[in-house]
Amino acid sequence: MQIIINRHNFRYEMENIARMFFHSSTLEIKFDIYEPIGDYVLTEIRNNEIIIKVSVFGKTEQKTAQIISQNENDTEWQMAEMLYDCLCALSGKEQKWGLLTGVRPTRLVHRMIDDGKTIAEIRDKFINGYKVSEEKFRLLWQTAMAERPIISASKPQDFSLYLSIPFCPSRCNYCSFVSGSVEKMGNLIPEYVECLAKEIEDAAEVSKKAGLRLKTVYFGGGTPTTLSAEQLKFLMDKIESCFDLSCINEYTVEAGRPDTVTEEKLRTIKEMGADRISINPQTFNDDVLNAIGRRHTTEQTLKAYETARKIGFKTINMDLIAGLTSDSYESFCSSLDTAINLNPENITLHTLTVKRAANLAEDSQNTFLTGETPAEKMVGTSFEKFFSGGYSPYYMYRQKGTLSNLENVGYCKAGHEGYYNIYIMDEVQSIIALGAGAVTKLKAPHSEQISRIFNYKYPLEYLRGFENIINRKREVLKFFEKYPF
Ligand code: SF4
Question: 180 and 117 in one domain?
Fold first, then answer.
């Protein structure tokens, strides 16, 4: 499929709109083609007119309109809307999120509320302006309302600490995270733990000097419970001795892969102060687990959950994924029912995202989406199931490459909102991130200014370039000198 850009600068937005309808890793961007052949999306500005022509599978749709504003952004939006309408007409399908392509749609809601817009005005903008479906607006509004008190309670000097453990027992086929299997990189773990402990000491010193106050701690990955109980204790001890934990409102350790969970590790995690863990089934269907290369069983998930419940964590999260390879609607619903019946405080429903880094990218096909997709059906059903199970949405985000342009949503029981998830997704406060692949995000206290500090991506690079990483963290001090509280 060719996306043709003739005489304008709106390539990025045109590509985004086209990608909503064509799930393909092979969209070709071409410039200045005036007599295209084959399947194409042509976008052009000529003599103060916008011309859109789409030709797919022998069907053609065309729209032409005068440019109505001299403002470039308005013209880009007009062109995007025309392209969207053409693609809807050809496919017979409206996108659930309409023209919205951004990662954080709730931020738009917060901005409008802060600007004094009424709920009626916000609703009108989303439904009639962005063409978002009623179903998604309802989800968006409820999520924004759950986030709002948590966002406004965050103070300028508050920050979160993220620790990356980029190791897993094996690599799942759909994974696009930076994570090495124990088989390939297990020998690096002891040195990695030592370096991470040093980075914890350094981050504590830097954050103290900057006048920051720790609010949440989050061990993510990879799979943190790939580490032994002793290694987890060593790192968590280090955090306790270096930071003041008296003001924190959440401490999470992801125990994502049930095949890494032991009672000893969970007890250690709990004793060291974590109150929230994540045990991630993704699906309760063993055949699907097998198809996605996730080497654990449903039995292991249930056992890990039972152990975590026995030990008494305040909040347990479970991740599920809609749209997994070889999963059916019925099997997905059964997984969802199983998760809801287990009654964890949080369930996060992801929709499968196929990125180039993941093995599944090779399976992605050049398809023109028409009618309701299986992933849309799964996610649509989940909304009602969560509500009747006593869950409500508390954070959400979208990603490029997600099936049917759907979203990822964290649902919770009342009072169990995951603070860290809201902080990071809504860019509420600074996140100091440690370890391989970690990205520190500094948020200026009284503006939306964000600055990032990147750690090396892979464990070996991290170990070899450790001194540089420590030096880069000096930027934290400079940032807060420039943007004082
Ligand atoms: S457990 Fe998670 S991080 Fe690890 S390989 Fe699987 S999807 Fe990736």
Answer: no
